[in-house]
């Protein structure tokens, strides 16, 4: 019986020891401090992520019509209701600005002469018709004539509905179809037309034109004459040395401001 009592007492002591180990003592810290936390254990308190605030769409209320809509429509159709401006404010008369085509012809001849010389030198054409400087300048002059004549045709369409300036373009030249010019000049001519200038105190519409005296010779200088056959031969000759050509859409009436720049 003593043995049994000892075994019972031993079992009771084991149970008490286990309870003592599980129960916190006075010196223990609860919850545990950060200093007593070992690496690998997560001590942060889980938090719910912040939700972005989204504004809910506010339903729009349709305006309730006031008055008779049929009567308002009738007044608008009769021109008695609305905002009206004077025609001079909305459609000002264009300001004609003359282009110096003689100066333009000189610049085109100088530019194309150097281009032709470089093209012949790069391709090493020994028996080319424009082998020397004089032939290169002659070819450039014929091509420049085509550039000026095409410019004349574009200006004629831009000034067609303006009685004050259309008299400069009463003559119509005979041109090839398609009428091709060197590609950079084709781009410039395609952007030649009326321009609205809104940076001034009053709205201005600039219209390119030429002097009346230049219209009789299609804008060419006094010592130059337009020859359609010579121009077609010059275009074929220039294409052989690598000069690119392109046509122009003459129906476009609005343009850019490049022609308003003052030449030097």
Number of helices: 7
Strand content: 5-15%
Helix content: 25-40%
Number of strands: 5
Given helix and strand content, the structural type is mainly alpha
Report the biggest beta sheet as strand number plus sense, adding barrel if it closes: 3 strands, mixed
* H/E element sequence: HHHEHHEHEEHE
How far apart are the termini?
Answer: 131 Å
Mean of residue pLDDT values: 76
Taking all Cα atoms into account, the compactness measure Rg is: 45 Å
User: Residue ranges: pLDDT <50 for 5 or more in a row?
Assistant: 1-5, 22-30, 33-37
**Order of strands across the main sheet:** 1-4-3
The backbone outline, from C-alpha atoms, is flat
Question: What does it look like?
Answer:
- Strand 3 and strand 4 form a beta hairpin.
- Helix 4 packs across helix 5 (133-158), helix 5 runs parallel beside helix 6 and helix 5 (133-158) packs across helix 7.
- Helices cover 39% and strands 6% of the residues.
- With 264 residues, it is mainly α.
- The protein has helices at 2-22, 69-77, 87-90, 101-123, 133-158, 183-190, 228-240, and strands spanning 95-98, 181-182, 195-197, 204-209, 245-246.
- The strands form 2 sheets. It has a 3-stranded mixed beta sheet with strand order 1-4-3. Strands 2-5 form a two-stranded antiparallel ribbon.
- It has a domain at 91-213 and 226-260.
- Residues 1-5, 22-30 and 33-37 have low confidence and may be disordered.
